[in-house]
Design a protein that fits this description.
Order of helices and strands: HHHHHHHHHHHHHHHHHHHHHH
Distance between the termini: 71 Å
Helix content: over 70%
Low-confidence stretches: none
Number of helices: 22
Mean pLDDT: 81
Number of strands: 0
Shape: globular
Strand content: under 5%
Structural class: mainly alpha
């Protein structure tokens, strides 16, 4: 696939994307930027949310991981489904009842201002790192397909990519994100389905033959119950999936900002149920695609594996040019869906939670000062994301999807523990020590992870670190319960 073809595909895609963004973002005020005016139809949000779940990491890493991990990722996705039900029927009604714009405002109501800031800062670190990891994949692919052939540096690639994210989110915020994500979700699903069709055709497989080839492959094993020390062990994956979903969706300003844009909590629940069912089947499609990619690569002699497999096969000379085009459209649809919503959520949380701009400008009836602050923060977040992506590109030495979930284990764990304590335990704590507990918990988890094989007879921690992190935070907060509450 030639660099010119890739460039033309990207330009055409962004013309459509910016048109949708402009139409959706017209006359958007601060309320529209932060929550879409709480007027978004639930089915529209469901389609948009489906795309945000499936980032560029999913698009590239999930197919590539089947050689090492088979279909074990589906065990985690099953946990996602259970976690989504808990979010929909426990957290969503609570957040709507409190009329929250940022979900971390709950922590201030429950524990005080310091806890509010602590949760917001942990989200900021989590989302900035996570979004940067995801967008890094796009930059990596662009560098291979476009920038290197034209002898352009990686740093230009990074800043141009982030600029494109900023420019289509700067006006409309959540309102623009939802409408553009509908477009991106549809493009993503169409891309993966058509890639499966074309690759199956090149392998001379009909519909029935495709399913037989996948089911007969050793890479299609879903369940792993034999070895508790295996990272693919079912209960590790399933339970981690539940808590990962709760932490990275239910307690994540990015994801909940969409869900809170519906008219009421019942509409939000409908959106969440539809989107998680779609996510399950789309992840299954990506895993099926992974098996077909390895079969095709083996047939034609392509040696790429892991994160480089899908780009190498899709853009190779062995497949029609349309497959490369579909890959580029699908990758951009997935990656920009996640990056756009992340940038909007970071702007919202930093403006409202960390700077308290809404409170400081409460006497401004037109919201002019708040708008100015929000726009400044939006630019700053985009620049910071570009810097983080560039640094990550220099340091990256692991599978991207693993990196995302390891980061989530350390940064979302304290947030999960704080929310769990706040909802389950009604007693008050010594609020000034809450930030200390949130910092100590990840440190304890790191020590545990580094020594687990020695201390626990070869046991290796995986994504369940998130649960331990939350548990340490929960226990720490229990120790901070004031004696006056305990006596009562």
């Amino acid at each position: 696939m030639s660099p010119i073809t890739v460039t033309i595909t990207i330009i055409a895609y962004f013309i459509i994307l910016f048109t949708v963004s402009w139409l959706a973002g017209r006359k958007t005020d601060n309320q529209g930027f932060f929550l879409g005016g709480r007027k978004q139809p639930w089915f529209l949000v469901a389609i948009a949310t489906m795309g945000s779940f499936l980032s560029g990491v999913t698009f590239v890493s999930v197919p590539g991981m089947v050689a090492d991990k088979s279909f074990s990722y589906l065990q985690m996705v099953m946990g996602f489904v259970v976690g989504q039900f808990i979010i929909a029927f426990v957290l969503v009604p609570l957040f709507y009842k409190m009329k929250l714009v940022s979900v971390y405002q709950y922590l201030e109501d429950r524990f005080g201002a310091r806890s509010h800031k602590t949760g917001a800062w942990f989200f900021f670190i989590s989302k900035m790192l996570g979004a940067s990891v995801r967008l890094f994949l796009v930059c990596l692919t662009l560098q291979l397909l476009v920038f290197e052939p034209f002898h352009l540096p990686f740093v230009l690639n990074v800043f141009l990519t982030v600029f494109l994210v900023w420019i289509y989110t700067c006006r409309g915020g959540v309102k623009s994100v939802i409408w553009t994500d509908v477009l991106k979700s549809l493009c993503l699903v169409l891309s993966v389905v058509l890639c499966i069709v074309f690759i199956s055709s090149e392998l001379n497989l009909g519909f029935k033959g495709m399913f037989q080839s996948i089911s007969n492959s050793s890479m299609s094993q879903v369940f792993f119950f034999d070895d508790v020390n295996d990272k693919r062990y079912f209960f590790k994956q399933f339970i981690a999936g539940i808590f990962t979903m709760i932490a990275t969706t239910g307690l994540d300003q990015d994801m909940m900002q969409r869900n809170l844009s519906c008219r009421n909590y019942k509409d939000s629940q409908k959106n969440m149920m539809v989107s998680i069912v779609c996510q399950f089947f789309i992840n299954l499609l990506f895993l099926m695609l992974g098996v077909l990619l390895y079969l095709f690569a083996s047939k034609v002699g392509i040696t790429a594996t892991g994160d480089t497999l899908f780009p190498a096969v899709a853009t190779s000379q062995y497949l029609p040019a349309i497959v490369g085009v579909l890959f580029v459209v699908g990758l951009f649809s997935a990656a920009y869906s996640a990056a756009g919503s992340a940038l909007t959520a970071l702007t919202t949380s930093f403006t409202l939670d960390i700077l308290d701009a809404d409170k400081k400008n409460a006497n401004d009836p037109n919201g002019t000062s708040l708008t100015k602050t929000r726009k400044t923060v939006h630019v700053f977040m985009a620049l910071l994301m570009a810097v983080v992506i560039y640094v990550f590109g220099l340091l990256n030495n692991t599978s991207v999807i693993d990196a995302v979930y390891v980061l989530a284990s350390y940064t979302y764990g304290p947030i999960l523990g704080m929310f769990a304590f706040g909802i389950i335990v009604k007693a008050k704590t010594k609020a000034k020590y809450v930030p200390l507990v949130a910092i100590v918990s990840p440190i304890l988890c790191f020590i545990l992870q580094e020594n687990s094989e020695t201390w626990f007879n070869g046991y290796k921690f995986s994504y369940e670190l998130l649960i331990l992190n939350a548990l340490f935070t929960f226990i720490g907060l229990c120790l901070l319960i004031s004696r006056n509450n305990a006596k009562k």
